[in-house]
Design a protein that fits this description.
Layout (H helix, E strand, L loop, with lengths): L15 H4 L3 E2 L1 E6 L5 E6 L2 E5 L4 E6 L11 H9 L1 E5 L6 H6 L10 H4 L4 E3 L6 E3 L4 E12 L6 E12 L4 E2 L2 E2 L6 E4 L5 E4 L11
Antiparallel strand pairs: 1-13, 2-3, 2-6, 4-5, 5-10, 6-9, 7-8, 9-10, 11-12, 13-14
């Protein structure tokens, strides 16, 4: 089949998210200027540069009690910092619970029963037991086409790695089962990996 997105796909469910998959989940923690912590998962997330290390995520919907975007976007807009936490399989229920629509100022950490830890380089909480966490300073906040679509690009200024996730000097995502987002309501866990050498290496 072929379709133009502007004309619709004619299927029971939108296939776009299923085509661009799997996507790592950025479990984003932020803090408001009033010191309210927030935690929310974003599946439009990825790394975008090595030097300096940079990551991006996109916020694609609004919230009635925010001028634009959701609490995560509002907090980053105000403070200029955020933390990206990696999601392991054992935390899948907590990650899902943190996606609940709570009022601005209501803390998802206790709501989802997630333990906090302090960041080192920024004024923000992180997920204490996450396999890895990336402390970020806002580099760019980019409006995208469409209502309530924004891309956040952050420079990584601090990296936390849980010791048991390091195997022979490498961060091993199969050790903890990294959770990824597919299309629709589907997720996947990475349990296997293989290595390829480029022809020029």
């Amino acid at each position: 089949m072929f379709y133009r997105p502007e004309d619709g796909h004619g299927l029971p469910h939108n296939p776009f998210n299923a085509i661009v998959a799997p996507r790592p989940i950025g479990w984003i923690s932020t803090r408001s200027t009033r010191s309210y912590d927030n935690l929310a998962p974003y599946s439009f997330f990825n790394a975008v540069a090595y030097t300096p290390p940079q990551v991006m995520f996109a916020s694609t919907s609004g919230k009635a009690d925010r001028a634009r975007g959701k609490d995560t976007l509002g907090n980053i807009d105000q403070t200029g910092v955020f933390c990206v936490n990696v999601v392991e399989y054992e935390a899948i229920n907590e990650m899902n619970a943190s996606s609940a629509s709570l009022a601005a100022g209501e803390d998802e950490f206790p709501h989802a029963k997630v333990t906090k830890a302090a960041c080192n380089e920024i004024d923000c909480s992180r997920v204490a037991l996450a396999p890895a966490s990336l402390e970020c300073r806002l580099s760019q906040l980019v409006p995208l086409e469409g209502e309530d679509n924004y891309m956040v690009i952050g420079r990584v200024v601090g990296v936390h790695i849980r010791d048991d996730c390091l195997v022979d000097g490498k961060f091993d995502i199969t050790r903890f089962g990294m959770v990824t987002r597919l299309g629709y309501r589907d997720y996947a866990v990475i349990r296997e990996a293989f290595e390829l050498t480029r022809p020029d290496d």
